[in-house]
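hi!! sorry for the late reply, been swamped w classes. u asked for the two structures so here they r. pasted raw, havent cleaned anything up. first the sequence of the first protein and right below it the tokens
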Amino acid sequence: FHMLSCPDYTQVDHINRDGLDNRSFNLREGVKVNPKNKGQQKNNNSGVTGVYYQDGKYACWCTQIGGTCNRRTRRFSIQLYGYDEARKMAIKVRNEWEKELEYGKYGY
């Protein structure tokens, strides 16, 4: 139905994230990065999108951003920085990347 409302758009984004709400004021032109316009996953253990704890021999807090072709990833060792400091550093880098890449511009 939304393709009738927005025939020129190759992709459509639902502003309120409800894919069944196809009212015209809830639709906007989508871009390839907009599928990231979604809530946090249930298994998110940091409270911040794109920041996660990786357990194992080399335990670390990791941050990543971007898609298939332009992904950035950075790891902060718990052994080197400590648990809390590594988490703070990962969140800080993620926030810097979001500003640099204008992620807020698309609503996520």
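now the second protein. again sequence first, tokens right under
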Amino acid sequence: MKKIFLSILISLAVSTTMVGCGKTSTNTVNNKNKNETKQTESNNEVSNDNHMKFDEMGLAFDIPENWAEKSGISISLVAPGKPGVAYMSGQLQYEFMPTEFNKKILIKIEELKGSTDEEKQQEVFMEYASKIKSFFTIVVLDKNMENEDSQIVKEDKERKEKLFSSYNHVDKVAEKDNLECYILYNDRPEEYEYIYKDMAEISEYTDAENKEFEESIKYIEELKKSIKLSKPMTSEDKMKEKMGENAGVRFETKTVQGNAIDSSIFKENKITMINVWSTTCGPCKAEMPELQELYEQIKSENLDVNIIGLVTDAVDDETIELAKKILEVKGVEFDNIIPDEKIKTEVLTWIQGTPTTIFVDSEGNIIDEPIIGAIGKEKYNQEILDKLNQAE
């Protein structure tokens, strides 16, 4: 959870490429076939504290116990490629921060919880950026796509060559069917770059910090032995599988303002657009002004459509209050609801990331496939018009 708050600071302090949340990153490529994230909030990372599983890449591994005890070793980039389209099926990058320094940063992040003071957030982020270094990278390649003549494959090959040439070690650690997995790393702390060297004043590592980093590098050998590959499964595939054939949205809950609300509100319109978001999702918050504009446009055109929001993490007083502040700052006027038990068990179990947009009919039945990621006002509007035409 503490690392999630750090990602909030990153998303607020840095201009990013927005796709979803965490489908966003300052360090990623921006291809249409990629879902990219800075500290993802999807359901891809599962099992237990030390076991990591990324279904979209077909990748799983165990974090060495030595790393699990250090709060400064964490994921900085998750970039899965679309199966059957991308040559680079996945890129997973880790970062390193000295433990004691990271503890100080986490204390400052805790102090900022609930704050909308972007100047203070920027200040903490810049301090964080002064020490953060790249660590190892895991790459999954689809051999079946290697000889495909497409722009995406060409770009993936160029990215692969650039990545592989930036590390001293490029070790193949797993192979299954058409997939190959490589781990890229260096031997010494000084061979790893500061991630934000172009935007922050760098703070050189002390001897003790370099020693800690050097000790951590040794555990890459343990990591290698645990890496396993399987058939990749996209977020859309997982969502369809978990939704079932008769998926619907039912609830009896409250808005973040405390007003009672239930799914009977769907009967008031032919179509309801449900924007699923979280308070830790930068792209979710960034698209809110456009969603409010869309809401106002719908009402001015007298379309038989409503928009509501669903705040996935509004489960305690502190987060509900934070959600209220975010909505106020972003100027959002449409209802945003708190998840009740039905939503938690019947909806959030198949949501793969935020923002996700769901369209339901007057009975609360889901129409077509949910939309993963922020797609912009005009595309949302077109989706609404398409759904209305289907309902005629």
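hope this helps!! also noticed smth abt the second:
Confidence is low (pLDDT under 50) at residues 1-20, 22-47.
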